[in-house]
Structure formats: structure tokens, C-alpha cells
């Protein structure tokens, strides 16, 4: 029996609802499979922890987490209690950097059984590859002066190493998929970073044959997400562009609550981290109405990461069957609570 040792961080808000519920399903899946088991260690790092300790994690928090095979995270953030940049940089964003999770994979796919005005009758299946360690997300800069003279400076950082890394990864992925790669750019308005990004894209392209490519400005690309999502295969984007596109990806699928993501460490030195695209949703926390599919689909990505693609497919297929039977949480127009959805999924999986 293979033991996979994961760190579990439910975090804040609905993370505390969808993570424990998803663990019930993960345990059942490992039982059904019979060949592996998740050993789980729970970490309470959250805004509650901050209120008690003045920081989101203990000083050796990263060290503790680095010992695990993977991190399964819900969401961090409660801006009424802790400023978002503090809460996120001390946890998710810091972890992505420290653990060199340079790639963030965010699949976007029309699921059976979901209708939405944005989706219409379109079918699509693509993946956003988000640069995950630098770009527009940087701590370089500062604020000076007061009142009317106040200045805030935020410097973007685009290294050749990370830019080439993410673009090359996306080319390889397109090569394994349907041979089309779209790059999000904004080389009209951003004078230095995006012309550089485009140049690296064009240089990398020369290494690959038979990949259809397009460079599309982020504003137009956002519109195409809505009007022709079926035209995409792989999309490569900088940190901020990829962040924004992936919520839009959730919206065209029918709900931000179903979008999954995987923060991938490629060099094997640190664990990868699996968390849904959505945040802690303080507006719906405590009502048992959060959609757990984003967290579950994220669990599927984690299963694939450890080589259990088949059982991951079983999970997503069974979710689709439930959706077709109108077993849905309110964000998708249904009347199932989080727990009731998981109960229904549990029963259906047990019958397989
Ligand atoms: N990686 C992360 O941990 C992460 C990601 C995004 C936002 N955040 C943080 O979460 C907090 C809230 O951020 P936000 O409101 O911008 O984004 P959000 O994703 O938490 O919520 C946006 C909207 O989508 C809805 N929603 C989100 N997930 C849902 C689900 N599973 N089921 C049903 N509805 C769902 C919410 O109710 C809300 O109306 C902030 O503190 C933010 O910084 C953290
Ligand atoms: O900006 C971020 O990366 C945090 C959150 O919005 C996410 O998408 O994970
Ligand atoms: K999240
Ligand atoms: Mn986001």
C-alpha cells in the first residue's frame, strides 16, 4: 500500500467547508482503488491563526510544509480581519515562490449537465498555464510621501528564466494536447514586459513544429473567452493575466465554484500545492451552500499528479452524472447543500 503524505490547510471561509468534505471523497477513492492511502496532517494556518499569533504561520511553517508530498489547500483570506496582501503573501503566494511552484495549471472545460447563459451551447476544453512566481506579483516597490503627494510604486519582474520556463512548458503541453497555443499579451500598453514576453514566445516557438500559435492582447482575449471558448487548447499567461483569465474561465463553465488549480513544482525539491481557483467566499461562508466541485476537481488534479489518472477520471465523470441529474448547489441553480452534494457523490461512487 503506497502512503501519500499530504499537508491539509483548509484556511478561511468556505475552505473550511469544502476541504473536509472533499477529504471524505478522497478517502473513499483510495478505498475503491485499493493501492494507495492519503496520510493527512492538518494545519490551522488562517486568519484565525493570525489573530492569535500575529502571523499566518509559525516561523518554521514553510519548513513543516516542505516535508510533505503535497499540500491540499482550500482558500486563504478574510479581509475584514487581515489585509489581503498580508494574509496571501504569508501563505499561498509565499508558498508558490518558496516552493518554486513556477507553473499554475487551471483547466477550463464545459461539464455535462451545466447550462449557463455565458456558455450557451458551446463545448470547450482548454487549460490556462499561469506563470506562478513573479511578473506583476512582486514586492518590489514602495510608497512614499503623504496625502496629495503620496506615491505608490509597484515594479513588475519578468526574468528570462521564468518567462522561458512557463512558455516552454505550455508549448510542451500543447504538443501533448491539440497543438494550439495562445499567449496572453499586452504589448501595446506595457512597454517593456510584454514585448519581452512576446520575444521569448517567438524564440521558443522556433523549437516546436506543428503548433498553431497566436498572441492575443489580454483585453481581446477576455472577450474571446466569452464569445469563442471552443477555439482554445492551451493558453499561456503571466501571473496577473492568468489569475484574471481563470476566474473568467470559471464563469464560462457556469460557476467560479467549480474551477480547479494545481501549483506545480517541476524540480522535485518541494511539494506541489493543490487548491481551487476560488477564494474563501466570506459572503456565503457558514451557510452550507459552497460548491465543493472546485475543491474536488482540484483533488482530481492531485490524484493525476501522483499517477492515479483513472480514479481521477472516475471522480469527475461521477460528478458530471450527478450534474446531469440536477444534483447541484445553488450557484449552479440547484438546491443541494455542500454536505448533501457530497453525500450524493459518496453514495454514487460507492455503487461503482
Ligand atoms: N488562493 C486563495 O486562497 C484565494 C483565491 C482567491 C481569493 N482569495 C481570497 O478570498 C477572499 C474573498 O475573495 P473574493 O471574494 O474576491 O473571491 P471568491 O472566489 O472568494 O468569491 C467570489 C464570488 O464567488 C463566489 N464563490 C466562490 N467560491 C464559491 C463556491 N465554491 N461556491 C459557490 N460560490 C462561490 C463567492 O460567494 C463570491 O460571490 C479574499 O480574502 C481573497 O483575497 C484567496
Ligand atoms: O492572486 C492570487 O493568486 C490569489 C488568488 O486570486 C488565486 O487565484 O489563487
Ligand atoms: K483557493
Ligand atoms: Mn484568483
From TrEMBL:
> Transferase: is it a keyword of this entry?
no
Show the Gene3D superfamilies listed in the entry.
Isopropylmalate Dehydrogenase
Q: Which residues form the Isopropylmalate dehydrogenase-like domain?
A: 5-345
Cited Pfam families = Iso_dh (PF00180)
Superkingdom assignment: Bacteria
Reactions catalysed, semicolon-separated, are:
(R)-malate + NAD(+) = pyruvate + CO2 + NADH
A Gene Ontology molecular function term of the record? NAD binding
Q: Which keywords accompany this UniProt record? A: Manganese, Metal-binding, NAD, Oxidoreductase
Obligatory cofactor(s): Mg(2+); Mn(2+)
Might you give the EC number(s) for this enzyme?
Answer: 1.1.1.83
- Would the keyword Manganese be found if you checked this record's keyword annotation? yes
Q: Which family does it belong to?
A: Belongs to the isocitrate and isopropylmalate dehydrogenases family.
What is the name listed in the Swiss-Prot or TrEMBL entry for this protein? D-malate dehydrogenase (decarboxylating)
Amino acid at each position: 500500500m503506497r502512503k501519500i503524505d499530504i499537508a491539509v490547510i483548509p484556511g478561511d471561509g468556505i475552505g473550511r467547508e469544502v476541504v473536509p468534505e472533499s477529504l471524505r471523497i478522497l478517502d473513499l477513492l483510495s478505498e475503491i482503488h485499493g493501492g494507495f492511502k492519503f496520510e493527512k496532517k492538518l494545519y490551522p494556518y488562517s486568519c484565525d491563526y493570525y489573530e492569535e499569533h500575529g502571523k499566518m504561520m509559525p516561523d518554521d511553517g514553510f519548513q513543516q510544509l516542505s516535508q510533505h508530498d503535497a499540500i491540499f489547500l482550500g482558500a486563504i483570506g478574510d479581509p475584514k480581519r487581515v489585509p489581503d496582501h498580508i494574509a496571501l503573501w504569508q501563505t499561498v503566494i509565499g508558498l508558490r515562490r518558496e516552493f518554486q511552484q513556477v507553473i499554475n495549471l487551471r483547466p477550463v472545460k464545459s461539464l455535462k449537465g451545466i447550462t449557463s447563459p455565458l456558455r450557451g451551447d458551446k463545448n470547450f476544453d482548454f487549460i490556462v498555464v499561469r506563470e506562478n512566481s513573479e511578473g506583476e506579483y512582486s514586492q518590489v516597490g514602495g510608497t512614499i510621501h503623504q496625502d496629495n503627494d503620496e506615491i505608490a510604486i509597484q515594479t513588475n519582474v519578468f526574468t528570462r528564466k521564468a518567462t522561458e520556463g512557463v512558455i516552454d512548458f505550455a508549448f510542451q503541453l500543447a504538443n501533448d494536447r491539440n497543438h494550439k497555443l495562445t499567449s496572453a499579451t499586452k504589448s501595446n500598453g506595457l512597454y517593456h514586459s510584454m514585448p519581452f514576453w512576446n520575444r521569448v514566445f517567438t524564440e521558443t516557438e522556433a523549437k516546436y513544429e506543428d503548433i498553431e500559435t497566436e498572441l492575443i492582447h489580454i483585453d481581446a482575449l477576455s472577450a474571446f473567452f466569452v464569445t469563442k471558448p471552443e477555439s482554445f487548447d492551451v493558453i499561456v499567461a503571466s501571473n496577473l493575466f492568468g489569475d484574471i483569465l481563470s476566474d473568467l474561465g470559471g464563469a464560462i463553465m457556469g460557476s467560479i465554484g467549480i474551477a480547479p488549480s494545481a501549483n506545480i513544482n517541476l524540480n522535485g525539491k518541494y511539494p506541489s500545492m493543490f487548491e481551487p481557483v476560488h477564494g474563501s467566499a466570506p459572503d456565503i461562508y457558514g451557510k452550507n451552500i459552497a460548491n465543493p466541485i472546485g475543491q474536488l476537481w482540484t483533488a482530481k488534479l492531485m490524484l493525476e499528479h501522483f499517477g492515479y489518472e483513472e480514479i481521477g477520471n472516475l471522480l469527475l465523470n461521477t460528478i458530471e452524472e450527478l450534474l446531469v441529474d440536477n444534483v447541484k448547489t445553488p450557484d449552479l441553480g440547484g438546491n443541494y447543500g455542500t454536505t448533501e452534494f457530497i453525500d450524493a457523490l459518496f453514495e454514487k461512487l460507492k455503487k461503482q
